[in-house]
């Protein structure tokens, strides 16, 4: 059905020729019009810049025509309930411009309501700095890591092969290789398409232990060591939970488990691929610390971290106490906010489970600072981040690096058709149907991935210069300003309560976020201690 318009206009050509023998003028017009549309459709089918046009020749032109008139029909295509997607058209347009290397300036000033409660901005300096490079880096690797990784402050968040198409995975990874940043695999493990791209990888290990599992689904040290030994793998991330569906497992139906997916995950073709809701390799905070240390040893000293969406505070406190007690802190913690997205989450989980990114980040940052171990662990954040300002905001609240998923999906052509679960993705990003994902041309899209990263980093550099700083890590809560009501604005430093180094090492814990639950957390168990 995708090619019906093209087939119709091609079939109309001989009809027009037949009509012209009786009515030359009308027959000639029909023939010329049909031949013109046929040529246009064949061009759409063979060009490499737009996967939508490759999948929907001729008919997709209507979408672009409507976007041309978008300002005039804004009330129908931007403000309607039908367009209530996670990101606005303006945000997608920002990514597209950066991915295509188009100037991002726009006329008529801001489209934001600066008087709105909750509006945020970064304060600038009267003495801007001048930086030679936009290649901001952070070194990840603590005391027990012998092969630290110097990562970009902006990287690709975890999206599994299986959820994304093979061409999407390869384009993302090849773009990461070109741009000098890293690509998190998602819990679907390392596929042949990750390896084809050649970019740096953060191998995410979930509860299904895909890529390092025994036949019964338990963790396999031998298979882990084999995959972790790849030079392409720079860090290991143990996924405890994700923002879109914290505490929830998952299943990839056997019908979707292709040969390539089975190869990457270490399962059988055609069999259900199950991610349990919890890990079997550890069950207490102390056991998790031992597990992370074992992964460091098996990977020859590469950085090992965890990914979580903050839930019960006493469980996070228990983890933090185990880090301090054993001295085996993770090299990094990826804090995922409840804003994070996936096509595999129940609506209730996506909307109402898990802590939002801001609250999760500040709790993790304050806890590590209060225990005096903040310098041992880098904090990476993810969850509905899209712009250089989002990066600045997260750094001001305590982050060391940011991961983005949707922004990079936009860069390779995602139009938020919200058909991820159906296998009918019009741009070939989230489908395993060859006829659809072949429309996504890797050699075109990986350039856009690298350009989106480079242009976002350039804007970040300009923002850091405007604040008179040398690196995003120099941003503090004093730089982030928030409108709290119609008459007051406050800095994040005064709007929130912050711990000082070592505040949690004594018996007198007064911070309201900690006073209620800190004493009920214990390193030996995730349970609420009475």
Question: Would you mind describing this structure in some detail?
Answer:
- The protein has 530 residues and is of the alpha/beta class.
- It has two domains: 4-84, no CATH class; 137-500, TIM Barrel (Alpha-Beta Barrel).
- It has helices spanning 4-20, 24-46, 51-55, 61-68, 74-77, 89-99, 166-179, 192-197, 221-228, 259-265, 285-298, 313-326, 347-352, 357-370, 388-396, 406-411, 434-437, 442-466, 492-495, 512-515, and strands at residues 120-122, 137-140, 149-152, 154-156, 182-184, 200-205, 233-239, 250-252, 273-275, 304-308, 332-336, 378-382, 401-404, 480-483, 489-491.
- Helix 1 (4-20) packs antiparallel against helix 2 (24-46), helix 7 crosses helix 18 (442-466) and helix 15 (388-396) crosses helix 18.
- The relative contact order is 0.14.
Question: Quick gist of this model?
Answer:
The chain is an alpha/beta fold. Helix content is 38%, strand content 12%.
List the keywords.
alpha/beta; TIM Barrel; 8-stranded parallel sheet
CATH superfamily of the largest domain: Aldolase class I
For the record, the CATH class of the largest domain is: Alpha Beta
The structural class is: alpha/beta
Termini gap: 63 Å
Q: Main beta sheet, described?
A: 8 strands, parallel
How many strands?
Answer: 15
Whole-number total of structural domains = 2
Query: Which stretches of 5+ consecutive residues score pLDDT under 50?
Result: 69-85
Tell me roughly what share of residues is in helical segments. 25-40%
| Global Rg | 25 Å
The strand order across the widest sheet is 4-13-12-11-10-7-6-5
Shape type: globular
DSSP helical segment count: 20
* Strand residue content: 5-15%
CATH architecture classification of the largest domain? Alpha-Beta Barrel
Q: Average the pLDDT over all residues and give the rounded result.
A: 88
């Amino acid at each position: 059905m995708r090619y019906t318009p093209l087939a119709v206009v091609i079939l109309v050509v001989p009809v027009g020729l037949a009509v012209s023998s009786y009515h030359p003028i009308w027959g000639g017009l029909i023939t010329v019009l049909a031949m013109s549309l046929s040529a246009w459709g064949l061009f759409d089918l063979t060009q490499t810049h737009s996967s939508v046009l490759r999948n929907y020749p001729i008919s997709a032109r209507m979408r672009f025509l409507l976007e041309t008139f978008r300002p005039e029909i804004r009330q129908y295509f931007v403000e309607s309930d039908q367009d209530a997607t996670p990101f606005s058209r303006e945000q997608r347009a920002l990514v597209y411009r950066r991915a295509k290397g188009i100037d991002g300036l726009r006329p008529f000033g801001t489209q934001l309501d600066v008087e709105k409660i909750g509006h945020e901005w970064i304060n600038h300096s009267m003495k801007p700095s001048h930086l030679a490079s936009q290649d901001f880096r952070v070194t990840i690797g603590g005391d027990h890591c012998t092969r630290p990784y110097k990562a970009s402050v902006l990287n690709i968040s975890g999206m599994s092969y299986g959820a994304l198409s093979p061409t999407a995975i390869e384009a993302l990874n090849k773009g990461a290789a070109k741009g000098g940043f890293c690509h998190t695999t998602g819990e679907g493990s390392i596929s042949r398409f990750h390896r084809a791209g050649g970019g740096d990888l953060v191998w995410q290990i979930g509860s299904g232990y895909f890529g390092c599992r025994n036949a019964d689904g338990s963790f396999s040290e031998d298979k882990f060591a084999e995959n972790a030994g790849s030079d392409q793998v720079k860090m290991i991330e143990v996924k405890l939970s994700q923002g879109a569906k914290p505490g929830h497992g998952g299943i990839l139906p056997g019908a979707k488990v292709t040969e390539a997916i089975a190869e990457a995950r270490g399962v059988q073709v055609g069999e259900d691929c199950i991610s349990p809701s919890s890990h079997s390799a550890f069950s207490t905070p102390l056991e998790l610390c031992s597990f992370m240390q074992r992964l460091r040893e098996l990977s020859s000293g590469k950085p090992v971290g965890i990914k979580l969406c903050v839930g019960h505070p006493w469980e996070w406190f228990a983890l933090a106490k185990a880090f301090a007690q054993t001295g085996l802190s993770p090299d990094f913690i990826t804090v995922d906010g409840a804003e994070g997205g996936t096509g595999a989450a129940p609506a209730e989980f996506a909307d109402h489970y898990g802590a939002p990114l801001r609250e999760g980040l500040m709790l993790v940052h304050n806890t590590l600072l209060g225990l005096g171990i903040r310098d041992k662990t880098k904090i990476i954040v993810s969850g509905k981040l899209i712009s250089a300002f989002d990066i600045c905001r997260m750094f001001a609240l305590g982050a060391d690096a940011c991961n983005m998923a949707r922004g990079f999906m936009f860069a390779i052509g995602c139009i938020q058709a919200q058909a991820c679960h159906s296998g009918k993705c019009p741009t070939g990003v989230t489908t395993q149907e060859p006829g659809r994902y072949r429309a996504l041309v890797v050699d075109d899209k990986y350039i856009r991935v690298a350009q989106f990263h480079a242009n976002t980093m350039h804007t970040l550099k300009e923002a850091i210069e405007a604040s008179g700083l040398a690196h995003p890590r120099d941003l503090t809560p004093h730089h982030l300003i928030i409108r709290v009501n119609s008459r007051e604005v406050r800095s994040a430093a005064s709007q929130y309560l912050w711990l000082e180094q070592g505040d949690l090492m004594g018996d007198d814990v007064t911070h309201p976020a900690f006073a209620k639950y800190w004493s009920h957390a214990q390193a030996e168990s995730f349970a609420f201690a009475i």
